[in-house]
Amino acid sequence: MRIELTNWLSARQRDFVLTLPELRRDRYYLIRTLLKQRVYWGEFDLDDDGVPERIVMIGFGGSIKQGGDCGQAQCQTMILKLHLHGWTLISEIQASRDSLRALPESDRGWHRLHAGPGRIYSRGEFGYEPPRGDVRANAEFMQKIADLEAASSAISRTASPGTHVPTTNRLTAAQRNFIRTAPAHQSSRREYNEALLKRQVYWAEFDLDGDGVAERFVILEFTGMCGSIGCATTIFRLGPKGWEAAGDIGAEHDSLWILPEIDNGWRRINTGTVFYRFPCGYMDDEDIDSNREEGRKPCDDD
User: Which of 40, 65, 107, 195 is spaced 20 to 30 Å from 203 by Cα?
Assistant: First the structure.
C-alpha cells in the first residue's frame, strides 16, 4: 500500500519537525527546507497497533544540505513511534517520495517497506535495515511488487474518480476583481496579482451543498504555491455577509472531481491525489484523523 506524503504541513506538524532532536544541528537548513516546502509528512500504522507511525522525509538528496528533489533522489527519511514519553525515532532510511510503500509481508511484527526501485527495508533488531539472504528470493520478491504496481496502475486508469469540474484562466473583469479583493487572499496578494497577469489563476464553479448557488474555486498555479498534492486552492461559498472561504485545498486546474458522497450536506472532493471531506470546512483525511488521535474535534484550531 502506498504511503501518501504531503509537503502541505500544518502549523502543528511544522513545530513537530522543528523540535526533532535529530535535526537540531541543521536547524538553519531545516527552516529553509520547510519554507521551500521540501519537508514531507506521512502517517501509517507500520506495526498494526492502532497508532500510526509518523514519517518525516527531508526533501533533499543524501542530506539536508544537498540539492535534488525526492522525486529523483533518495532522501533522508525518519520513522517515529509514539511511546509513553512521546515520539521516538526508531529508524532512519533513504527513500523516494513517490515509491514509499508498506508491504503486506512483515518482520518482527512490522510491515516491510518498499523505499524505491530495487530497495526493500525489513525490521531488524535495531530498526529498519536492508534485507539479507538469498539474492534470487529478493529478485522474485521485487518482481512480485512490480506486478502489483502494474495491476494498481491499471485499476486507477479504469476507475471513475467522480464528476469532472472544468476550469478556465480566461477571467472576466468581475472575476479578477473578486480574486484581488477577497480577504482570504490578502496575505498572498502579490502572488495573486502577478499570477493574474500570467494567466496562472484558474476559476471554476460547482454547487457543492445543493442550495442552488454554485461555490467558487480559485486555483493559484504560481511558483511557490504548488506542492506534491497540488496548488493553493480556495473554495468560496455565499454566506449571510457575502462570499467567504469554505476551505483551502490542494488541486490543479485539470484535477477537480466531485464525488457523490456527502458529509454535513457537502459533496466530497477528489483532486486525484487527495480526498477532501466537510466536517465544518473542507479538510483531508490526514488532518481529520490527526485531530481525532489527539482527542480534538476535526475543526478545532491549532
Answer: 40
